[in-house]
Amino acid sequence: MALLAVLMTGLLAQASLQPYQPLVAGARWNYSCSGGIAATRSISNGSINGVSGFVNMLSLTIPGQPSVQFGELQMNDSQGTKTGGWLFAPTYPSVQINPPQLELPVNPVLGQNITLPDGYGGTITVTYAGLATVTGYARVFTGVAVFKETDSGNPPIPFPRTVYMVKGIGEVRTDLAGSQGLNLPATSCTLANYSIP
Q1: Beta-carbon count within 10 A of 39 CB
Q2: Which of 5, 27, 122, 163 is the most exposed place for a label (fewest CB within 10 A)?
Q3: Residue pLDDT, tens place only, 4-16
Q4: How does pLDDT run across 123-181, given as a tens digit for each residue?
Q5: Could you tell me the domains of the chain?
Q6: Residue 174: HSE in the Cβ half-sphere, 13 Å Cα cutoff
Q7: Given strand 38-48, what is the order of strands in its sheet?
Q8: Is the pTM of this model over 0.90?
């Protein structure tokens, strides 16, 4: 019985240290969004100005117009998921954040604010807003971490946004503000399916 307790404690500790965003080349998430928009998130290897990591790219298909794409250069460490810059294919040049800054802490505290530069002269503020339940198309996710993000600058990134994260799965829902620069209306996207190699 004591051995079982030790094993369970070890497994719980390992799960609590797991980052919210899995970063594995070839991982893919498909979302269904409001307004008839479809979205796909994919992970690939990448770099900006010699800083290497994983490109977390979101592609949105908006009825009647070209696809909209934007992403982050990300890496995981013991603190959580860090952002090393923004990528816009093919609309805008990529922007580096060096050194990479923490965006999604492994074990956030309710109300905790994290700030990082947006690469355009503004500051992104990420606030941990607690836990929620998200009903997806395939299942119900409980204990979902909610991160609210705002930006004081004017980057071509849709802010404010709210991301709903599950450790080991990633983003199960996102609420995006509209962006004139990206010709993107405000939308809410919910996970339909995903695969992580």
Answers
A1: 23
A2: 5
A3: 343 344 434 445 6
A4: 999 999 999 999 987 789 999 999 999 999 877 778 999 999 999 999 999 999 988 87
A5: 23-195 (2.40.360)
A6: 25
A7: 95-105, 80-87, 68-77, 51-61, 38-48, 28-33, 187-195, 170-176, 161-166, 140-151, 123-135, 113-117
A8: no
